[in-house]
UniProtKB/TrEMBL annotation:
It is a multi-pass membrane protein. One of its GO terms (molecular function) is low-affinity nitrate transmembrane transporter activity. Belongs to the major facilitator superfamily. Proton-dependent oligopeptide transporter (POT/PTR) (TC 2.A.17) family. Keywords: Membrane, Phosphoprotein, Transmembrane, Transmembrane helix, Transport. This is Protein NRT1/ PTR FAMILY 5.10. InterPro entries: MFS_trans_sf, POT_fam. PANTHER family: OLIGOPEPTIDE TRANSPORTER-RELATED. It is found in: Membrane. It comes from Rhynchospora pubera. The chain crosses the membrane at residues 63-86, 107-133, 153-171, 201-220, 226-246, 313-334, 354-371, 392-412, 444-463, 475-499, 519-538.
Length: 551
Protein backbone atom coordinates (compact mmCIF):
# COMPACT_ATOMS: atom_id res chain seq x y z
CA UNK A 1 0.00 0.00 0.00
CA UNK A 2 1.28 3.49 -0.75
CA UNK A 3 2.65 5.80 1.97
CA UNK A 4 -0.37 8.08 1.45
CA UNK A 5 -2.74 5.14 2.04
CA UNK A 6 -0.89 4.04 5.20
CA UNK A 7 -0.92 7.54 6.64
CA UNK A 8 -4.61 8.03 5.78
CA UNK A 9 -5.57 5.08 7.98
CA UNK A 10 -4.91 7.26 11.03
CA UNK A 11 -7.14 10.10 9.85
CA UNK A 12 -10.94 10.33 9.73
CA UNK A 13 -12.29 10.66 6.23
CA UNK A 14 -13.75 14.10 6.77
CA UNK A 15 -10.47 15.42 8.15
CA UNK A 16 -8.77 15.10 4.78
CA UNK A 17 -9.87 18.21 2.86
CA UNK A 18 -8.80 19.13 -0.65
CA UNK A 19 -9.87 17.95 -4.10
CA UNK A 20 -9.39 14.36 -5.23
CA UNK A 21 -6.62 13.80 -7.73
CA UNK A 22 -7.73 12.65 -11.18
CA UNK A 23 -11.44 13.32 -10.67
CA UNK A 24 -13.80 16.19 -11.52
CA UNK A 25 -17.53 16.81 -11.37
CA UNK A 26 -19.90 16.96 -14.33
CA UNK A 27 -18.83 20.56 -15.05
CA UNK A 28 -15.12 19.74 -14.97
CA UNK A 29 -14.56 21.27 -11.52
CA UNK A 30 -12.46 19.60 -8.76
CA UNK A 31 -14.43 17.31 -6.46
CA UNK A 32 -14.13 16.65 -2.73
CA UNK A 33 -14.53 13.32 -0.99
CA UNK A 34 -17.25 14.47 1.38
CA UNK A 35 -19.56 15.83 -1.33
CA UNK A 36 -19.16 13.33 -4.16
CA UNK A 37 -18.98 9.67 -5.02
CA UNK A 38 -19.22 6.85 -2.51
CA UNK A 39 -22.42 4.91 -1.91
CA UNK A 40 -24.60 8.00 -2.43
CA UNK A 41 -23.57 8.05 -6.09
CA UNK A 42 -23.30 4.29 -6.38
CA UNK A 43 -26.96 3.75 -5.48
CA UNK A 44 -28.14 5.67 -8.55
CA UNK A 45 -26.03 3.39 -10.73
CA UNK A 46 -27.21 0.25 -8.96
CA UNK A 47 -30.81 1.29 -9.65
CA UNK A 48 -30.11 1.69 -13.36
CA UNK A 49 -28.37 -1.69 -13.40
CA UNK A 50 -31.44 -3.44 -11.96
CA UNK A 51 -33.59 -2.04 -14.79
CA UNK A 52 -30.96 -2.72 -17.47
CA UNK A 53 -30.54 -6.37 -16.46
CA UNK A 54 -34.31 -6.81 -16.18
CA UNK A 55 -34.71 -5.57 -19.74
CA UNK A 56 -31.78 -7.48 -21.24
CA UNK A 57 -32.65 -10.81 -19.63
CA UNK A 58 -36.30 -10.27 -20.43
CA UNK A 59 -35.14 -10.96 -23.98
CA UNK A 60 -32.12 -13.25 -23.61
CA UNK A 61 -33.65 -15.66 -21.06
CA UNK A 62 -36.53 -16.52 -23.41
CA UNK A 63 -34.90 -15.83 -26.78
CA UNK A 64 -34.50 -19.49 -27.73
CA UNK A 65 -38.24 -20.01 -27.13
CA UNK A 66 -39.08 -17.14 -29.50
CA UNK A 67 -36.61 -18.34 -32.12
CA UNK A 68 -37.94 -21.92 -32.11
CA UNK A 69 -41.56 -20.71 -31.78
CA UNK A 70 -42.72 -17.68 -33.80
CA UNK A 71 -39.58 -17.65 -35.96
CA UNK A 72 -39.68 -21.41 -36.58
CA UNK A 73 -35.94 -22.19 -36.22
CA UNK A 74 -34.52 -25.62 -35.38
CA UNK A 75 -33.05 -26.12 -31.90
CA UNK A 76 -29.44 -26.18 -33.14
CA UNK A 77 -29.92 -23.10 -35.36
CA UNK A 78 -31.72 -21.20 -32.60
CA UNK A 79 -29.02 -22.05 -30.04
CA UNK A 80 -26.30 -20.92 -32.47
CA UNK A 81 -28.18 -17.67 -33.22
CA UNK A 82 -28.77 -16.96 -29.53
CA UNK A 83 -25.11 -17.62 -28.71
CA UNK A 84 -23.95 -15.39 -31.60
CA UNK A 85 -26.12 -12.52 -30.35
CA UNK A 86 -25.03 -13.03 -26.75
CA UNK A 87 -21.41 -13.26 -27.88
CA UNK A 88 -21.70 -10.02 -29.84
CA UNK A 89 -23.10 -8.26 -26.79
CA UNK A 90 -20.05 -9.42 -24.83
CA UNK A 91 -17.46 -8.65 -27.54
CA UNK A 92 -18.69 -5.17 -28.49
CA UNK A 93 -17.61 -3.81 -25.08
CA UNK A 94 -14.06 -3.85 -26.46
CA UNK A 95 -15.17 -1.16 -28.91
CA UNK A 96 -17.47 0.63 -26.47
CA UNK A 97 -14.79 0.76 -23.76
CA UNK A 98 -12.23 2.21 -26.17
CA UNK A 99 -14.63 4.95 -27.27
CA UNK A 100 -15.63 5.68 -23.69
CA UNK A 101 -12.09 5.90 -22.34
CA UNK A 102 -10.80 8.08 -25.18
CA UNK A 103 -13.73 10.18 -26.37
CA UNK A 104 -17.21 9.80 -24.91
CA UNK A 105 -16.45 9.29 -21.25
CA UNK A 106 -18.16 6.62 -19.18
CA UNK A 107 -21.13 8.78 -18.18
CA UNK A 108 -22.08 9.68 -21.75
CA UNK A 109 -21.46 6.09 -22.87
CA UNK A 110 -23.98 4.86 -20.28
CA UNK A 111 -26.50 7.49 -21.40
CA UNK A 112 -26.07 6.48 -25.06
CA UNK A 113 -26.44 2.80 -24.16
CA UNK A 114 -29.70 3.49 -22.34
CA UNK A 115 -31.18 5.42 -25.27
CA UNK A 116 -30.20 2.65 -27.73
CA UNK A 117 -31.70 0.05 -25.39
CA UNK A 118 -35.04 1.86 -25.18
CA UNK A 119 -35.12 2.05 -28.99
CA UNK A 120 -34.12 -1.59 -29.47
CA UNK A 121 -36.70 -3.02 -27.05
CA UNK A 122 -39.37 -0.80 -28.59
CA UNK A 123 -38.55 -2.09 -32.08
CA UNK A 124 -38.71 -5.69 -30.81
CA UNK A 125 -42.19 -4.99 -29.48
CA UNK A 126 -43.26 -3.63 -32.87
CA UNK A 127 -41.83 -6.74 -34.59
CA UNK A 128 -44.10 -8.91 -32.47
CA UNK A 129 -47.26 -6.79 -32.85
CA UNK A 130 -47.54 -4.98 -36.19
CA UNK A 131 -48.84 -7.24 -39.02
CA UNK A 132 -46.18 -6.14 -41.58
CA UNK A 133 -43.44 -7.00 -39.08
CA UNK A 134 -44.98 -9.95 -37.23
CA UNK A 135 -44.29 -13.50 -38.60
CA UNK A 136 -47.40 -15.39 -39.67
CA UNK A 137 -48.18 -18.51 -37.68
CA UNK A 138 -47.72 -22.04 -39.04
CA UNK A 139 -50.25 -24.70 -38.09
CA UNK A 140 -49.45 -28.38 -38.24
CA UNK A 141 -52.93 -29.21 -39.63
CA UNK A 142 -52.63 -26.70 -42.47
CA UNK A 143 -52.33 -28.13 -46.00
CA UNK A 144 -50.36 -25.15 -47.28
CA UNK A 145 -47.55 -23.78 -45.10
CA UNK A 146 -45.61 -22.19 -47.93
CA UNK A 147 -46.60 -18.67 -46.84
CA UNK A 148 -46.23 -19.12 -43.05
CA UNK A 149 -43.25 -18.14 -40.95
CA UNK A 150 -41.21 -14.94 -41.16
CA UNK A 151 -40.30 -13.19 -44.39
CA UNK A 152 -36.77 -11.96 -45.09
CA UNK A 153 -37.83 -8.42 -44.24
CA UNK A 154 -39.38 -9.52 -40.93
CA UNK A 155 -36.25 -11.46 -40.00
CA UNK A 156 -34.08 -8.48 -40.90
CA UNK A 157 -36.16 -6.07 -38.79
CA UNK A 158 -36.13 -8.49 -35.85
CA UNK A 159 -32.36 -9.01 -35.92
CA UNK A 160 -31.64 -5.29 -36.44
CA UNK A 161 -33.69 -4.63 -33.29
CA UNK A 162 -31.88 -7.41 -31.47
CA UNK A 163 -28.41 -6.24 -32.45
CA UNK A 164 -29.24 -2.65 -31.57
CA UNK A 165 -29.55 -3.97 -28.03
CA UNK A 166 -26.21 -5.76 -28.44
CA UNK A 167 -24.59 -2.45 -29.48
CA UNK A 168 -26.07 -0.83 -26.37
CA UNK A 169 -24.53 -3.60 -24.29
CA UNK A 170 -21.18 -2.73 -25.85
CA UNK A 171 -21.29 0.61 -24.04
CA UNK A 172 -23.20 -0.36 -20.89
CA UNK A 173 -21.38 -3.52 -19.80
CA UNK A 174 -17.86 -2.10 -19.45
CA UNK A 175 -18.81 1.46 -18.52
CA UNK A 176 -21.59 0.91 -15.99
CA UNK A 177 -19.47 -1.07 -13.55
CA UNK A 178 -16.31 0.97 -14.23
CA UNK A 179 -18.16 4.23 -13.60
CA UNK A 180 -19.63 2.77 -10.43
CA UNK A 181 -16.21 1.65 -9.17
CA UNK A 182 -14.84 5.12 -10.02
CA UNK A 183 -17.03 6.49 -7.23
CA UNK A 184 -14.67 4.90 -4.67
CA UNK A 185 -11.13 6.19 -4.19
CA UNK A 186 -8.65 3.31 -4.14
CA UNK A 187 -6.06 5.42 -2.26
CA UNK A 188 -8.37 5.64 0.75
CA UNK A 189 -8.44 2.48 2.93
CA UNK A 190 -12.15 2.67 3.75
CA UNK A 191 -13.24 3.47 0.20
CA UNK A 192 -10.95 0.72 -1.12
CA UNK A 193 -12.79 -1.85 0.99
CA UNK A 194 -16.13 -0.32 -0.05
CA UNK A 195 -15.14 -0.64 -3.70
CA UNK A 196 -14.51 -4.37 -3.27
CA UNK A 197 -17.92 -4.65 -1.62
CA UNK A 198 -19.45 -2.61 -4.47
CA UNK A 199 -18.51 -5.34 -6.96
CA UNK A 200 -20.48 -7.85 -4.90
CA UNK A 201 -23.52 -5.60 -4.59
CA UNK A 202 -23.35 -4.68 -8.27
CA UNK A 203 -23.75 -8.34 -9.10
CA UNK A 204 -26.49 -8.61 -6.48
CA UNK A 205 -28.36 -5.80 -8.26
CA UNK A 206 -27.83 -7.47 -11.63
CA UNK A 207 -29.31 -10.69 -10.36
CA UNK A 208 -32.25 -8.93 -8.75
CA UNK A 209 -33.16 -7.54 -12.17
CA UNK A 210 -32.53 -10.91 -13.83
CA UNK A 211 -34.67 -12.79 -11.30
CA UNK A 212 -37.64 -10.48 -11.82
CA UNK A 213 -37.16 -10.69 -15.58
CA UNK A 214 -37.05 -14.47 -15.91
CA UNK A 215 -40.15 -14.83 -13.73
CA UNK A 216 -42.30 -11.88 -14.78
CA UNK A 217 -41.19 -11.17 -18.35
CA UNK A 218 -41.04 -14.83 -19.42
CA UNK A 219 -44.52 -15.46 -17.99
CA UNK A 220 -45.97 -12.48 -19.85
CA UNK A 221 -44.21 -13.46 -23.10
CA UNK A 222 -45.33 -17.10 -22.92
CA UNK A 223 -48.87 -16.60 -21.64
CA UNK A 224 -50.04 -13.11 -22.62
CA UNK A 225 -48.06 -11.97 -25.63
CA UNK A 226 -44.58 -11.28 -26.94
CA UNK A 227 -45.49 -7.73 -27.91
CA UNK A 228 -46.48 -6.79 -24.36
CA UNK A 229 -43.45 -8.57 -22.95
CA UNK A 230 -40.96 -6.76 -25.20
CA UNK A 231 -42.76 -3.41 -24.90
CA UNK A 232 -42.68 -3.56 -21.11
CA UNK A 233 -38.87 -3.80 -21.26
CA UNK A 234 -38.62 -0.55 -23.19
CA UNK A 235 -40.96 1.26 -20.80
CA UNK A 236 -39.13 0.11 -17.65
CA UNK A 237 -35.88 1.66 -18.88
CA UNK A 238 -37.32 5.20 -19.06
CA UNK A 239 -37.75 5.93 -15.29
CA UNK A 240 -34.43 4.19 -14.62
CA UNK A 241 -32.75 6.54 -17.10
CA UNK A 242 -34.34 9.55 -15.40
CA UNK A 243 -33.05 8.31 -12.02
CA UNK A 244 -29.54 7.95 -13.49
CA UNK A 245 -29.64 11.54 -14.74
CA UNK A 246 -30.83 12.81 -11.35
CA UNK A 247 -27.62 11.51 -9.77
CA UNK A 248 -25.37 13.51 -12.12
CA UNK A 249 -24.34 16.11 -9.54
CA UNK A 250 -23.09 13.41 -7.14
CA UNK A 251 -20.85 11.52 -9.59
CA UNK A 252 -17.07 11.58 -9.79
CA UNK A 253 -15.81 11.76 -13.36
CA UNK A 254 -12.42 10.29 -14.21
CA UNK A 255 -10.24 12.70 -16.19
CA UNK A 256 -9.66 11.27 -19.68
CA UNK A 257 -6.34 11.17 -21.48
CA UNK A 258 -7.89 11.69 -24.94
CA UNK A 259 -5.88 8.71 -26.20
CA UNK A 260 -7.46 5.45 -27.32
CA UNK A 261 -6.66 2.52 -25.02
CA UNK A 262 -5.68 0.42 -28.04
CA UNK A 263 -3.31 3.18 -29.22
CA UNK A 264 -1.77 3.39 -25.77
CA UNK A 265 -1.41 -0.39 -25.65
CA UNK A 266 0.22 -0.33 -29.08
CA UNK A 267 2.78 2.24 -27.97
CA UNK A 268 3.55 0.25 -24.83
CA UNK A 269 4.10 -2.96 -26.79
CA UNK A 270 6.30 -1.14 -29.31
CA UNK A 271 8.46 0.15 -26.46
CA UNK A 272 8.69 -3.36 -25.02
CA UNK A 273 9.63 -4.83 -28.41
CA UNK A 274 12.30 -2.18 -29.02
CA UNK A 275 13.82 -2.75 -25.60
CA UNK A 276 13.85 -6.51 -26.12
CA UNK A 277 15.60 -6.10 -29.46
CA UNK A 278 18.14 -3.69 -27.99
CA UNK A 279 18.93 -6.02 -25.09
CA UNK A 280 19.25 -8.98 -27.46
CA UNK A 281 21.60 -7.33 -29.94
CA UNK A 282 23.88 -5.03 -27.93
CA UNK A 283 24.96 -4.00 -24.49
CA UNK A 284 23.83 -0.70 -23.13
CA UNK A 285 26.41 2.06 -23.49
CA UNK A 286 26.99 4.37 -20.62
CA UNK A 287 26.39 7.95 -21.56
CA UNK A 288 25.66 11.21 -19.87
CA UNK A 289 22.00 12.03 -19.75
CA UNK A 290 20.46 15.40 -19.30
CA UNK A 291 17.06 15.97 -17.66
CA UNK A 292 15.18 15.63 -20.93
CA UNK A 293 16.39 12.19 -22.00
CA UNK A 294 16.16 10.99 -18.39
CA UNK A 295 12.46 11.91 -18.50
CA UNK A 296 12.07 10.11 -21.84
CA UNK A 297 13.74 7.05 -20.37
CA UNK A 298 11.35 7.11 -17.41
CA UNK A 299 8.37 7.32 -19.80
CA UNK A 300 9.71 4.38 -21.80
CA UNK A 301 10.24 2.27 -18.67
CA UNK A 302 6.66 3.10 -17.60
CA UNK A 303 5.30 1.98 -20.97
CA UNK A 304 7.33 -1.23 -20.84
CA UNK A 305 6.05 -2.10 -17.38
CA UNK A 306 2.50 -1.32 -18.51
CA UNK A 307 2.85 -3.67 -21.50
CA UNK A 308 4.28 -6.43 -19.32
CA UNK A 309 1.48 -6.05 -16.77
CA UNK A 310 -1.15 -6.42 -19.51
CA UNK A 311 0.62 -9.41 -21.07
CA UNK A 312 0.52 -11.11 -17.67
CA UNK A 313 -3.29 -10.97 -17.85
CA UNK A 314 -3.45 -13.04 -21.04
CA UNK A 315 -2.97 -16.54 -19.50
CA UNK A 316 -5.71 -15.79 -16.94
CA UNK A 317 -8.00 -14.54 -19.72
CA UNK A 318 -7.30 -17.56 -21.95
CA UNK A 319 -7.78 -20.16 -19.20
CA UNK A 320 -11.16 -18.64 -18.29
CA UNK A 321 -12.73 -19.00 -21.75
CA UNK A 322 -14.29 -22.42 -21.13
CA UNK A 323 -16.27 -20.85 -18.30
CA UNK A 324 -17.80 -18.60 -20.96
CA UNK A 325 -18.98 -21.73 -22.81
CA UNK A 326 -20.58 -23.02 -19.61
CA UNK A 327 -22.24 -19.65 -18.97
CA UNK A 328 -23.81 -19.74 -22.45
CA UNK A 329 -25.80 -22.88 -21.61
CA UNK A 330 -27.98 -21.13 -19.02
CA UNK A 331 -30.23 -19.42 -21.55
CA UNK A 332 -30.04 -22.13 -24.23
CA UNK A 333 -29.86 -25.85 -23.43
CA UNK A 334 -30.54 -25.57 -19.69
CA UNK A 335 -33.78 -23.78 -20.57
CA UNK A 336 -34.69 -26.05 -23.50
CA UNK A 337 -33.95 -29.13 -21.37
CA UNK A 338 -36.78 -28.21 -18.98
CA UNK A 339 -39.42 -27.41 -21.62
CA UNK A 340 -41.15 -30.81 -21.71
CA UNK A 341 -40.89 -31.62 -18.02
CA UNK A 342 -43.91 -31.42 -15.69
CA UNK A 343 -44.02 -27.65 -15.16
CA UNK A 344 -47.17 -27.46 -13.05
CA UNK A 345 -46.72 -25.18 -10.04
CA UNK A 346 -50.41 -25.48 -9.12
CA UNK A 347 -53.33 -26.96 -11.00
CA UNK A 348 -53.78 -23.68 -12.87
CA UNK A 349 -50.23 -22.22 -13.04
CA UNK A 350 -47.68 -23.57 -15.51
CA UNK A 351 -44.11 -22.39 -14.94
CA UNK A 352 -42.45 -21.05 -18.15
CA UNK A 353 -39.18 -22.90 -18.95
CA UNK A 354 -37.18 -19.67 -18.76
CA UNK A 355 -38.56 -18.89 -15.30
CA UNK A 356 -36.43 -21.66 -13.81
CA UNK A 357 -33.39 -19.48 -14.46
CA UNK A 358 -34.62 -17.48 -11.47
CA UNK A 359 -33.49 -20.32 -9.18
CA UNK A 360 -29.93 -19.49 -10.20
CA UNK A 361 -30.28 -15.76 -9.71
CA UNK A 362 -32.11 -16.28 -6.39
CA UNK A 363 -29.14 -18.40 -5.31
CA UNK A 364 -26.89 -15.47 -6.20
CA UNK A 365 -29.08 -12.97 -4.32
CA UNK A 366 -28.97 -15.20 -1.24
CA UNK A 367 -25.28 -16.06 -1.51
CA UNK A 368 -23.84 -12.58 -2.19
CA UNK A 369 -24.73 -11.23 1.30
CA UNK A 370 -23.45 -14.47 2.86
CA UNK A 371 -20.19 -14.12 0.96
CA UNK A 372 -19.80 -10.38 1.59
CA UNK A 373 -20.89 -10.30 5.25
CA UNK A 374 -19.84 -13.72 6.55
CA UNK A 375 -17.27 -15.51 4.39
CA UNK A 376 -15.11 -12.45 3.55
CA UNK A 377 -14.81 -11.19 7.19
CA UNK A 378 -13.84 -14.68 8.37
CA UNK A 379 -11.29 -15.05 5.57
CA UNK A 380 -9.89 -11.57 6.37
CA UNK A 381 -9.06 -12.80 9.87
CA UNK A 382 -7.45 -15.96 8.51
CA UNK A 383 -5.57 -14.51 5.53
CA UNK A 384 -4.92 -10.95 6.82
CA UNK A 385 -5.99 -9.72 3.33
CA UNK A 386 -8.60 -6.90 2.94
CA UNK A 387 -10.51 -8.96 0.36
CA UNK A 388 -10.49 -12.18 2.39
CA UNK A 389 -9.26 -14.34 -0.46
CA UNK A 390 -7.34 -13.21 -3.51
CA UNK A 391 -9.21 -12.44 -6.71
CA UNK A 392 -7.77 -15.47 -8.52
CA UNK A 393 -8.58 -17.80 -5.63
CA UNK A 394 -12.15 -16.58 -5.93
CA UNK A 395 -12.21 -17.21 -9.69
CA UNK A 396 -10.69 -20.69 -9.33
CA UNK A 397 -13.31 -21.65 -6.73
CA UNK A 398 -16.08 -20.68 -9.14
CA UNK A 399 -14.56 -22.70 -12.00
CA UNK A 400 -14.49 -25.76 -9.70
CA UNK A 401 -18.18 -25.23 -8.86
CA UNK A 402 -18.99 -24.95 -12.60
CA UNK A 403 -17.39 -28.39 -13.10
CA UNK A 404 -19.79 -29.83 -10.52
CA UNK A 405 -22.64 -28.00 -12.32
CA UNK A 406 -21.96 -29.78 -15.62
CA UNK A 407 -21.70 -33.18 -13.93
CA UNK A 408 -25.08 -32.61 -12.24
CA UNK A 409 -26.64 -31.39 -15.53
CA UNK A 410 -25.42 -34.52 -17.33
CA UNK A 411 -26.82 -36.83 -14.65
CA UNK A 412 -30.21 -35.06 -14.67
CA UNK A 413 -30.39 -35.27 -18.47
CA UNK A 414 -29.63 -39.02 -18.30
CA UNK A 415 -32.52 -39.33 -15.83
CA UNK A 416 -34.83 -37.36 -18.17
CA UNK A 417 -33.99 -39.56 -21.17
CA UNK A 418 -34.45 -42.72 -19.10
CA UNK A 419 -37.88 -41.53 -17.95
CA UNK A 420 -38.93 -40.80 -21.54
CA UNK A 421 -37.94 -44.34 -22.55
CA UNK A 422 -39.70 -45.94 -19.59
CA UNK A 423 -42.99 -44.21 -20.42
CA UNK A 424 -42.76 -44.78 -24.18
CA UNK A 425 -42.45 -41.05 -24.97
CA UNK A 426 -39.28 -41.13 -27.05
CA UNK A 427 -41.11 -40.35 -30.29
CA UNK A 428 -43.54 -37.89 -28.73
CA UNK A 429 -41.48 -34.68 -28.43
CA UNK A 430 -44.48 -32.55 -27.45
CA UNK A 431 -45.61 -34.87 -24.64
CA UNK A 432 -44.97 -33.93 -21.01
CA UNK A 433 -42.46 -36.24 -19.37
CA UNK A 434 -43.61 -37.35 -15.89
CA UNK A 435 -40.60 -35.79 -14.17
CA UNK A 436 -40.78 -32.64 -12.07
CA UNK A 437 -39.33 -29.40 -13.36
CA UNK A 438 -37.43 -29.07 -10.08
CA UNK A 439 -35.04 -31.83 -11.11
CA UNK A 440 -33.13 -29.25 -13.18
CA UNK A 441 -33.15 -26.57 -10.45
CA UNK A 442 -29.85 -27.75 -8.83
CA UNK A 443 -27.82 -27.04 -11.97
CA UNK A 444 -29.19 -23.48 -12.09
CA UNK A 445 -28.44 -22.98 -8.38
CA UNK A 446 -24.90 -24.31 -8.75
CA UNK A 447 -24.07 -22.13 -11.76
CA UNK A 448 -25.45 -19.16 -9.78
CA UNK A 449 -23.06 -19.87 -6.90
CA UNK A 450 -20.23 -20.33 -9.43
CA UNK A 451 -21.04 -16.89 -10.86
CA UNK A 452 -20.66 -15.22 -7.47
CA UNK A 453 -17.09 -16.49 -7.36
CA UNK A 454 -16.01 -16.45 -11.00
CA UNK A 455 -17.92 -13.61 -12.66
CA UNK A 456 -17.52 -11.13 -9.80
CA UNK A 457 -13.92 -12.24 -9.27
CA UNK A 458 -13.04 -11.69 -12.93
CA UNK A 459 -14.79 -8.30 -12.96
CA UNK A 460 -12.76 -7.07 -10.02
CA UNK A 461 -9.54 -8.67 -11.31
CA UNK A 462 -9.62 -7.06 -14.76
CA UNK A 463 -10.71 -3.69 -13.34
CA UNK A 464 -8.06 -3.73 -10.62
CA UNK A 465 -5.09 -4.99 -12.65
CA UNK A 466 -5.45 -2.66 -15.66
CA UNK A 467 -3.87 0.82 -15.73
CA UNK A 468 -6.21 3.40 -14.16
CA UNK A 469 -7.06 5.11 -17.46
CA UNK A 470 -7.97 1.82 -19.17
CA UNK A 471 -10.30 0.26 -16.66
CA UNK A 472 -13.31 0.29 -18.97
CA UNK A 473 -11.17 -1.72 -21.37
CA UNK A 474 -10.28 -4.05 -18.51
CA UNK A 475 -13.95 -4.79 -17.88
CA UNK A 476 -14.42 -5.18 -21.64
CA UNK A 477 -11.71 -7.87 -21.57
CA UNK A 478 -13.72 -9.62 -18.87
CA UNK A 479 -16.86 -9.37 -21.01
CA UNK A 480 -14.93 -10.81 -23.96
CA UNK A 481 -14.48 -14.02 -21.95
CA UNK A 482 -18.26 -14.48 -21.94
CA UNK A 483 -18.51 -13.27 -25.55
CA UNK A 484 -15.86 -15.56 -26.98
CA UNK A 485 -17.24 -18.34 -24.78
CA UNK A 486 -20.65 -17.87 -26.40
CA UNK A 487 -19.10 -17.91 -29.89
CA UNK A 488 -17.08 -21.03 -29.00
CA UNK A 489 -20.28 -22.65 -27.75
CA UNK A 490 -21.98 -21.80 -31.06
CA UNK A 491 -19.05 -23.23 -33.07
CA UNK A 492 -18.90 -26.33 -30.86
CA UNK A 493 -22.63 -26.96 -31.25
CA UNK A 494 -22.48 -26.52 -35.04
CA UNK A 495 -19.49 -28.84 -35.41
CA UNK A 496 -20.94 -31.54 -33.15
CA UNK A 497 -24.31 -31.28 -34.89
CA UNK A 498 -22.67 -31.69 -38.30
CA UNK A 499 -20.55 -34.66 -37.21
CA UNK A 500 -23.28 -36.52 -35.33
CA UNK A 501 -25.93 -35.79 -37.98
CA UNK A 502 -23.89 -37.78 -40.50
CA UNK A 503 -24.48 -40.83 -38.29
CA UNK A 504 -28.22 -40.18 -38.19
CA UNK A 505 -28.35 -39.47 -34.43
CA UNK A 506 -27.47 -35.85 -33.73
CA UNK A 507 -26.80 -34.80 -30.15
CA UNK A 508 -29.09 -31.80 -30.75
CA UNK A 509 -32.13 -33.38 -32.39
CA UNK A 510 -35.30 -31.25 -32.50
CA UNK A 511 -36.81 -34.16 -30.61
CA UNK A 512 -34.91 -33.80 -27.34
CA UNK A 513 -36.00 -37.29 -26.33
CA UNK A 514 -33.72 -38.61 -29.08
CA UNK A 515 -30.99 -36.01 -28.52
CA UNK A 516 -27.97 -36.41 -26.27
CA UNK A 517 -27.48 -33.24 -24.29
CA UNK A 518 -25.97 -35.49 -21.63
CA UNK A 519 -23.02 -36.25 -23.93
CA UNK A 520 -22.54 -32.53 -24.52
CA UNK A 521 -22.57 -31.80 -20.79
CA UNK A 522 -20.00 -34.54 -20.12
CA UNK A 523 -17.80 -33.05 -22.85
CA UNK A 524 -18.03 -29.62 -21.21
CA UNK A 525 -17.21 -31.13 -17.81
CA UNK A 526 -14.02 -32.60 -19.30
CA UNK A 527 -13.07 -29.26 -20.86
CA UNK A 528 -13.65 -27.46 -17.55
CA UNK A 529 -11.43 -29.96 -15.71
CA UNK A 530 -8.58 -29.26 -18.14
CA UNK A 531 -9.21 -25.52 -17.90
CA UNK A 532 -9.12 -25.62 -14.09
CA UNK A 533 -5.71 -27.31 -14.04
CA UNK A 534 -4.28 -24.76 -16.49
CA UNK A 535 -5.87 -21.87 -14.57
CA UNK A 536 -4.33 -23.02 -11.29
CA UNK A 537 -0.92 -23.38 -12.94
CA UNK A 538 -0.88 -19.84 -14.33
CA UNK A 539 -2.54 -18.30 -11.24
CA UNK A 540 0.17 -19.56 -8.94
CA UNK A 541 2.78 -17.59 -10.85
CA UNK A 542 0.77 -14.41 -11.28
CA UNK A 543 2.22 -11.28 -9.65
CA UNK A 544 -0.49 -8.82 -8.61
CA UNK A 545 -0.24 -5.16 -9.45
CA UNK A 546 -1.11 -4.29 -5.87
CA UNK A 547 1.12 -6.67 -3.93
CA UNK A 548 -1.61 -9.11 -2.99
CA UNK A 549 -0.61 -12.69 -2.25
CA UNK A 550 -0.93 -14.84 -5.38
CA UNK A 551 -3.26 -17.80 -5.78
Amino acid sequence: MSTHSMESQHQPLLDRPGPLNGFVDYRGRPVHRSSSGGWNAGLFLLGLEVAARFAYYGVSSNLITYLTGPLGMSIATAAAAANAWSGSGSMLPLVGASLADSWLGRYRAIALATVLSILGYGMLALSAVLPPLKPSECHSHSTNNSHCGPTSFQLAFFFISLYLIAIAQGFDKPCGLAFGADQFDQSDPQEYVSRSSFFNWWYFSMCTGITIAVVVASYIEDNIGWGLGFGMLSIIMIPAFIMFLLGTSTYRFHEMEKKTPFGRLGRSFVSLARTSLRVGTMRFKEEEENAENQHAKTQTVSKIEEARSILRLFPIWATSLVYGITFAQITTFFTKQSQNLDRRFTSSIIVPPAALQSSGTIAIIVFVPIYDRLIVPVMRIISKSPSGITMLQRVGTGIAVSLVTMVVAALVEMKRLKTAREYGLVDQPEATIPMSLWWVAPQFVLIGIADVFTVVGLQEFFYDQMPDSMRSLGLALFQSILGIGAFLSSILISCIDKITSSNGETWFSNNLNRAHLDYFYWLLAGLIAVQLMLFMYFSRGYVYKKKVNAF
